[in-house]
Amino acid sequence: MSIMSKLESNLPSEINVDPAEIEKFSALASRWWDPNSEFKPLHAINPLRLGWIQEMINPASPDLALQGKTVLDVGCGGGILAEAMAVAGGTVSGIDLAEKSLTVAKLHSLESGVKVKYESISAEALAIRESASFDVVTCMEMLEHVPDPASIVQACATLTKPGGWLFFSTINRNPKSFLFAIIGAEYVLKLLPKGTHSWEAFIKPSELADACRMADLQVQTLIGMTYNPFTEVYKLGSDSSVNYLMAVRKPD
Fold first, then answer.
1. Dist. CA 20–CA 131, nearest whole Å
2. What angle do CA 77, 80, 82 make, to 5 degrees?
3. Which of the two ends of the chain, N or C, has the fewest CB atoms closer than 10 A to its terminal CB?
4. What distance in Å separates the CA atoms of residue 144 and residue 198, rounded to the nearest whole number?
5. Residues linked to residue 249 through DSSP beta bridges, in sequence order
């Protein structure tokens, strides 16, 4: 079922989580903050993600973009992006349903002294409790791991204050993404553990944009992220054929 089919379905939904995905990341939880572990790609792209978020929010003064902002990281995992946004000046909360990953995130926060409020709760449940509470909501590398990504998009929209920013990142669905994100990244280059991704769960930019519009959000821009296996360098650019990020705003 496509992301839009799920969004338009009137069937009642259970908690929006795939137990197999939770178990997958829980098994790796202790290695979240090891920059040479299975999470090496996340450590490598984190400065790119953060810098792009800051530039989108405040092009004139990116370093000040998150100062005084309430920020929510949905699917925060071990807290790599959440801590970076807190260091950048945001009052950051992180949510995830993988308890072991959250435990690692909390422990690292204590060790680093970077304050982040972590909680095990679904985006949908938090949206009921804290509607329109955040200036900035991020949901990175998560949508392709849940049964109903459109539900996450709607919850993120509900959680965002009018005029606020939302940032999503995920993987495009096409033959190239199968070759690069699964065969290349998991089997040839071994950047990720085998079985990290399912090609059928990848999301086309048009599908994500439609889900955002259905949630009354305004798509601002789309940018791709590429990886050069020879230089081991990630960069942002116009090529969104595999990995991409989308910036969205909630109308005032």
1. 29
2. 85
3. C
4. 8
5. 165, 218
